[in-house]
Specification:
The structure holds 2 protein chains of 2 kinds.
Chain A: E1 14-20, E2 23-30, E3 37-45, E4 50-59, E5 72-73, E6 75-76, E7 83-90, E8 94-104, E9 107-117, H1 127-153, H2 165-204, E10 211-216, E11 220-225, H3 229-232, E12 242-243, E13 251-257, E14 263-266, E15 269-272, E16 275-279, E17 286-296, E18 301-310, E19 323-325, E20 331-332, E21 337-342, E22 346-351, E23 357-358, E24 363-371, E25 380-381, E26 389-394, E27 400-403, H4 411-421, E28 441-446, E29 452-462, E30 465-476
Parallel strand pairs in A: 20-30, 23-30
Antiparallel strand pairs in A: 1-2, 2-3, 3-7, 4-5, 4-8, 6-7, 8-9, 10-11, 11-16, 12-17, 13-14, 13-17, 14-19, 15-16, 17-18, 21-22, 22-24, 24-28, 25-29, 26-27, 26-29, 29-30
Helix pairs in contact in A: 1-2
Chain B: H1 2-6, H2 14-20, H3 26-51, H4 60-85, H5 89-93, E1 96-98, E2 101-103, H6 105-131, H7 140-164, H8 169-193, H9 206-227, H10 232-250, H11 279-292, H12 298-325, H13 361-390
Antiparallel strand pairs in B: 1-2
């Protein structure tokens, strides 16, 4: 399995919905594929009263989180006055924050959005650039050979004298020797270029730590995290220690293959710095994809991936925050809404801002939960401190994301910034995604990174029970 | 144009031509300005990266660098085209011919340098997109740029020396002074290039002396040899010292603030490069020894000159290193109290302790052996280059 992005798998962009003082914002940060690089920021005001937004990049925590460079004014769209765009340079891989100053009818407010940055891929040279450079190289080599010829042949001749046969011969020899030397230099240069490019790619490219899963004592799953040179090289970015994210040191998802069924959402304990263990509930034999989410002390998330084959395992039903979901009939989303029924219990509606889903389009996924009798469900409870959890998996497993009502970043990263700001208007305090007016609704800001078929697992808690709604969606280009 | 006056049609004889190089041709000034602009641009760019950070192709520092390339490109092309297609037949008589075009040899070399510099721009742009923005000095596209810059400077030197070798009296002296100045700019460019290895905290490591031995003797010896002036290398090193010191004192007066995060150190002005090296010590030893041994075997000259140069540099820079890491140097005069915006306060102490590049005593001595060998070989190369330049007449 290829793990392409930090934070999640294959889903590197950051989506955030929250409040900056009185203003409700939907922020998208498109992180650059290579670091250092330029992140594209998009801000949409959801209340419609923002006039100006300024942004600045800082480290999330530690040294470098204290001073901000002068902020940049975001460009306000002419067509849509509540839509702002801007860009920021992310100079190193690790946990960043985009600090925002928001101006509007209710004065100035501030907020910060955590942004994990990690290099994902290098860019191939475009054909036109390649052709141009090749042509210039050939011209430079040919003219350099001619220059060497002229140097040997006539540069030291007195004016008005013609080069003798001997000098002309010397010129030809110089040209031959320089041609051979230049070809050798180009050959060595090419070797160096390839080595330099490989070296940079090797040093820069993010890789999640490897993880090894094994079964012990019949049904205890033991996860051992391996060494990651990428993380080790960036110790000063505080990427070592693991901190709990909404109360758990690890969020582990086991997804049955090949039909993404069932889903286990578990929370192993940390046994040592790099070992985690969880006594499994009843598990049906089969192949599983394993996604293990952790958060580093700087708020930088890692999703480690592995494949696992399990036998039929005895055990207790999942308890506490753990859950198991076997999908009988997922809702198939066509158009802008779809319904999922939990037999004898509730009916879930997914409604989309737009007709049909498109890749890279930021949107708010809105789920309403109704009782059997059609009334909005009244007994929703916070599930691990928030309105709900959304797990997004692409059919081919190239994308995995674990999203919350506040957005795609770990809650722990948001909390670190909140602590720093220490202000009252926090997104956390107002139970993100739990809108007072519609308690039976939970929303998630997200953008599908690529076209394809995805399965969404929405998890909420009702009367102490974790419930899961399952929706299949197709994302078009 | 001025250069037409230099070679009047009525006086094609060699002696007449020698006499007629009576004023400084315009393209010599273009060359001197281009090299200066490039050197200033490079210094500015390094300072920009440590104090402001935000980088595009259009920063004033980059424009300054590429102005040099464009100036040389335009002036060289003009000179070549007018010499080739104009009625200036005597201009052709003292030109070289490449691909059917006529022009002074140095002009072709400069033009090549300028073109190489411009080639590096799209290459660098792609490299940045592919592998991240400016994280190292010695990357393949930067090497292309640096090569272009040096060839541009080299072309300038050749252009001046060919005029100088055909001139007499006051004109020759004037040209010689410009030649030394351009040589000094070339030395400054080289010193900026090796500055990653010649920081004062490395002055107790062999790498410091290896870098100096590789870069400095060829340019110092070559220039001195071609110029023929007494104490020419010392003069070049002295000009460098004064310019670099003035930069250290004046550059921090320019207000600047970091425009890239993370900002680890609050910077309010441009951050200068470090205190200059006492290069004139090594250069004076070279001048003295070369003058004394001018008639001896070239390899012997190189062995004595190169060794003397390096010993002199060790004698001054080793104790100076001790001083510069001490708190006594943390002031505007010696400038060890400037930190780039990306240096965290927790790393300030690195500026006040030696950074030992070699990890063992053996490694150090092997490095020193390489340094001395390099100094000798490079001095020999400088001698050959200087002698060759003395004979360039076109």
């Amino acid at each position: 399995m290829v793990s392409l992005g930090s934070a999640h798998v294959g889903s590197p962009d950051v989506f955030y919905e929250g409040k900056a003082g009185p203003y409700r914002l939907f922020v998208t940060v498109r992180t650059p594929p290579m670091i250092p690089g330029i992140a594209q920021i998009e801000v949409r005001s959801l209340d419609g009263n923002v006039t100006d937004v300024r942004i600045a990049p800082l480290r999330a925590v530690g040294e470098g989180s204290e001073y901000a460079p002068p902020s940049d004014r975001m460009e306000r769209s002419r067509a849509d006055s509540q839509y702002f765009t801007g860009k920021l340079w992310l100079m190193a891989s690790g946990a960043w924050q985009v600090r925002m100053e928001v101006f509007g009818t209710q004065g100035k407010a501030e907020t910060a959005v955590p942004v994990p940055a990690a290099a994902r891929r290098t860019l191939r040279m475009q054909n036109t650039t390649g052709t141009l450079l090749l042509a210039l190289m050939l011209l430079l080599v040919a003219s350099m050979i001619a220059i060497f010829g002229a140097a040997a042949r006539e540069s030291q001749l007195e004016p008005n004298t013609a080069a003798s046969a001997q000098l002309r011969r010397r010129g030809r020899i110089a040209m031959t020797v320089s041609a051979v030397a230049l070809v050798a230099i180009l050959f060595l240069g090419n070797m160096w270029w390839n080595a330099a490019a490989r070296g940079r790619a090797e040093q820069m490219m993010y890789k999640a730590p490897p993880i090894e899963a094994s079964l012990q004592y019949t049904n205890t799953l033991v996860l051992k995290m391996g060494f990651s040179s990428w993380h080790d090289r960036r110790k000063d970015m505080l990427l070592d220690k693991i901190i709990p994210d909404h109360g758990h040191i690890m969020h582990l998802f086991l997804i049955g293959l090949p039909d993404l069924n069932p889903l286990y959402h578990l929370h192993p304990d940390q046994m040592s710095a790099d070992t985690f263990a969880e006594r499994l509930p009843v598990v049906a034999a089969g192949n599983y994809a394993l996604f293990a989410d952790i958060v580093r002390e700087s708020g930088f998330p890692d999703t480690m991936t592995a494949r696992l084959t399990l036998p039929n395992l005895p055990g207790d039903p999942p308890a506490g925050d753990d859950s198991e979901t076997t999908v009988a009939s997922p809702a198939d989303v066509k158009g802008s809404s779809a319904f999922f029924t939990l037999p004898g219990n509730s009916r879930w509606e997914l409604s989309l801002d737009t007709q049909g889903l498109r890749a890279r389009q930021p949107l708010i996924l809105r789920f309403r939960i109704f009782d059997n009798d059609g009334k909005p469900a009244s007994n929703l409870e916070p599930y691990m401190g928030m309105g709900g959890h959304l797990v997004i998996v692409k059919r081919d497993l190239a994308v995995f994301a674990h999203v919350h009502p506040s957005g795609s970043m770990p809650m722990a990263a948001l909390l670190l910034l909140e602590k720093q700001k220490d202000s009252g208007s926090s997104a956390m305090r107002a139970m993100p995604g739990m809108h007072e007016t519609a308690p039976a609704e939970v929303t998630f800001p997200y953008g599908f990174p690529e076209t394809g078929d995805y399965r969404l697992f929405v998890q909420i808690k009702r009367s102490g029970q974790v419930q899961t709604g399952v929706f299949d969606v197709h994302v078009g280009p | 144009m001025a250069h037409r006056a230099l070679y009047p049609v009525s006086a094609p004889a060699q002696s007449a031509v020698l006499d007629r190089v009576a004023e400084i041709p315009w393209y010599v000034w273009c060359s001197a300005i281009a090299v200066t602009s490039t050197a200033v641009g490079l210094y500015w760019d390094i300072s920009w990266h440590t104090s402001i950070g935000r980088d595009t192709f259009w920063t004033p520092a980059h424009l300054c660098i590429h102005f040099g390339a464009i100036l040389v490109g335009l002036s060289s092309s003009y000179l070549i085209l007018t010499t080739t297609f104009g009625k200036n037949q005597v201009g052709q008589a003292s030109a070289v011919k490449i691909w059917g075009f006529y022009g002074p040899f140095g002009t072709f070399v400069s033009l090549w340098g300028g073109l190489t510099m411009l080639t590096s721009a799209p290459f660098d742009d792609w490299w940045h997109n592919a592998f991240g923005l400016d994280v190292q000095i010695i990357s393949p596209p930067h090497v292309v740029l640096i090569l272009g810059i040096f060839v541009l400077g080299l072309g300038g030197l050749l252009l001046i020396i060919s005029e100088m070798n055909r001139a007499n009296g006051e004109t020759r002296r004037k040209l010689n002074r410009i030649f030394l100045y351009v040589g000094c700019m070339l030395a400054i460019l080289l010193l900026m290039l090796i500055s990653e290895y010649t920081g004062y905290t490395q002055s107790h490591s062999a790498i410091y002396y290896r870098a100096l031995a590789l870069a400095m003797p060829p340019v110092l010896v070559g220039i001195a040899r071609a110029s023929g002036y007494k104490w020419a290398a010392t003069k070049v090193a002295a000009i460098y010292f004064v310019i670099w010191l003035l930069a250290l004192w004046l550059v921090p007066l320019v207000p600047a603030e970091p425009k890239l995060g993370p900002v680890y150190t609050r910077v309010t002005h441009l951050v200068p490069m470090e205190f200059p090296l006492f290069l004139f010590a090594g250069a004076a030893v070279l001048d003295f020894l070369m003058d004394r041994m001018a008639e001896r075997n070239k390899w012997l000259q190189a062995a004595v000159g190169g060794t003397g140069f390096l010993l002199a540099m060790i004698a001054v820079q080793w104790p100076m290193g001790n001083f510069l890491i001490s708190p006594l140097a943390e002031n505007r005069i010696f400038g060890t109290n400037y930190y780039p915006y990306m240096q965290p306060p927790s790393a300030y102490h690195f500026n006040h302790q030696f950074n030992f590049y070699e990890k063992s005593r053996t490694e150090f001595w092997v490095g020193m052996l390489i340094a001395f060998t390099a100094a000798v070989v490079m001095t020999r190369i400088g001698l050959a280059w200087g002698d060759w330049m003395r004979r360039v007449k076109r």
